[in-house]
Design brief:
45% strand, 2% helix, 4-stranded antiparallel beta sheet, globular, Neuraminidase, mainly beta, 164 residues, single chain
Length: 164
């Protein structure tokens, strides 16, 4: 990430052991937790600053917004092209408008909503990490269509992926 914005982080290379040089979240200046395509470039969400940034087609970085402590899983909404993300600390999916203001928040009744992924239209998969389950939810009505328990896969479902 740009040093001029986020400061100088630890100088670790691919040759160094992440196990031996592990840096806890609280000691990191920032880290990308999700990257997805948007407007011909790559949009990213970052922990610590709770920021969303965009690398344009020329690889220039633009910070779009910040201040969401638990900002995770930024992606483009297929219905509008606008961005959405999980504000994990508040347990809500945040939908942005085309000026990057908050259009709406959808409360998922979670203490740690780590990810949200649009499946089709208003149907989203949400990772309710505090309950270790994935829910398929209609974000317009907040109706839970189904739940997938995560206990057999580990301690907590975090990031979601879906492909046709």
């Amino acid at each position: 990430m740009p040093e001029a914005i986020y400061g100088r982080n630890f100088d670790l290379t691919r040759q160094e052991s992440v196990v031996e040089h592990y840096v806890p979240n609280d000691l990191q200046l920032t880290h990308i937790n999700c990257a997805s395509s948007w407007h011909g470039g790559i949009v990213v969400s970052m922990l610590i600053q709770g920021a969303i940034g965009w690398f344009d087609t020329a690889r220039n970085y633009h910070e779009l917004l910040r201040g969401f402590v638990g900002c995770h899983g930024v992606r483009a909404d297929a219905r509008t092209g606008n961005l959405y993300f999980s504000d994990s600390c508040l347990g809500v999916v945040v939908f942005l408008d085309n000026k990057l203001g908050i259009a709406r928040r959808v409360d998922m009744a979670s203490r740690w909503l780590h990810d949200a992924l649009q499946i089709d239209g208003d149907t989203f998969a949400v990772s309710v990490t505090d309950a270790n389950r994935v829910q398929l939810v209609d974000v317009s009505s907040r109706d839970i269509m189904t739940e997938i328990p995560g206990a057999e896969f580990g301690m907590g479902t975090q990031f979601l992926s879906y492909g046709c």
